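Record type: monomer structure entry
Structure origin: computed from sequence
Chain ID: A
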Amino acid sequence: MTTKEKIIESAISVIQSEGTTNYSLAKVAEKTGMTKAAIFYYFKNKAELTRSLISYTIDAYEKILQEEYQLAKPHSAFPFTEAYINGNLSQLDDEKLVGLHAALIGTVVSGEATGYDWNEAYLKDFERLVPEIGEERAEFVRYTIDGMWHARILKIPEFAMEGRKSVAASLLSMIKQK
């Protein structure tokens, strides 16, 4: 692991344990075992580190989507759509990843970071969904998945034991009826 990756991992740890309000370069440096001045060699400020965290999260997401796409591609008429639904579903079961998403969304809402990278990721997904299922269904799938993310981030309890899985199965069924 490179020093830059260690800093990113430490920043994730700080955010998850202390939240975004207590997230600082000093705490990241302490967690990494470096001086704050040394952090500035890799990141010019907290905003740049935060943007790197957002990129890190999006890259991890893209990797999961690619893995799911490879699984769906041989048997599906809608491989990206299946990958999108199943990839998001698997991420929603990962406490660490959900916590990181929540914290990073918090940085965008608070104005510490911009939503540009998130918007680019959304647009890229939408552009990959539309050729398979059309604009209206792509919006429906996206908003349903977003709702699952928001419910998970806000810790809203599911009413049914298999809530997310059942909704995902219904989405896939609806799409296959094209």
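Annotation 1: The chain has two domains: 1-44, 46-176.
Annotation 2: The mean pLDDT is 88.
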